[in-house]
Amino acid sequence: MSLEYLKPPIFLSPLDDTVICSGPEGKEAMVRAGLKGKKLGKEKKLELIAARKKAMDSKRSRDDSKWKRVLAKMSDDKKKKYIGVGNTGKKARTRGVTRRSLRKAPAAKSETLTTECTIHLSKLLCNKTFNKRAPLAVKKIKKFAAKMMKTKDNRIDASLNTFLWSKGVKGVPGRVRVRLERKTAPNEKGKHYYTVISNISVPSFKGLKTTPIRA
Question: How far is 145 from 139, CA to CA, in rounded Å?
């Protein structure tokens, strides 16, 4: 008696005659192979690229016609208010007033800036090993200063370093009040900004807030 009819069916790849798999798992494998980008083949990939390009061109033409209608209805006074926003070149897309154009340009970074703030070291050092708490506190304070003052060069003052290491590597204080002073130094490329972080001794941290100090 022949047992060929008991054998599971063999599924072939839709792109060529190579066998993917046999049995009930073969159908799922064939579907996965058809969906993967690597199994599509050169012709299928080119068809997908052409379809995406066509969709992008149609969306671009719709957007351009919309912005042309908006600019046509806009008064001359309003157009003067938004100089350089509408791009009406031959090869460029037509654009109107955007949220980015209404945003104010960032002001130039001031040379000197001083801020007093409190850093909660207990939160930053939570679940950290004891023999690395003091060095890690120095790193966390420098990272905090970089975010606040927008400088890459952040220097710990001797007073702050002594305060952090006063009770050893394990006994880092829970909070610390610091003064962040941004300064400039002459450099070959221009100005070099750096921040000096110093300690402020306070009797209590209650009610203290971040306060900028203006010269």
Answer: 10
CB 172 within 8 A of CB 124: no
- Say whether both 97 and 120 belong to one domain: no
Query: Do residues 133 and 122 lie in contact, with contact meaning Cβ atoms separated by under 8 Å?
Result: no
For the chain (215 residues), the mean pLDDT of every run of 10, in chain order, is 44 45 50 54 76 84 77 74 51 57 69 90 91 94 93 93 93 94 85 92 92 79
**98 plus 117 within the same structural domain:** no
Cα 82 to Cα 69: distance, rounded to the nearest angstrom: 17
Provide the pLDDT for residue 15.
44
Domain holding 78, by residue range, is 50-102
Q: What pLDDT sits at residue 45?
A: 73
Give the count of domains, the chain. 2
Query: What is the per-residue pLDDT for 33?
Result: 53
| Backbone dihedral angles phi then psi of residue 143, each to the nearest 5 degrees | -65, -40
H-helix or E-strand containing 186? Answer: strand 175-186
Question: What integer pLDDT is reported at residue 38 of this predicted model?
Answer: 55
Which among 38, 67, 102 is the end of a domain? 102
118 & 147 share domain: yes
Other CB atoms within a 10 A radius of the CB of residue 66 amount to 12
6: which DSSP letter? G
Which amino acid type is present at position 69?
Answer: R
Pure H helices in 90-157: 99-102, 121-124, 133-149
Q: Indicate whether 141 and 117 sit together in one domain.
A: yes
Domain contains 122:
yes
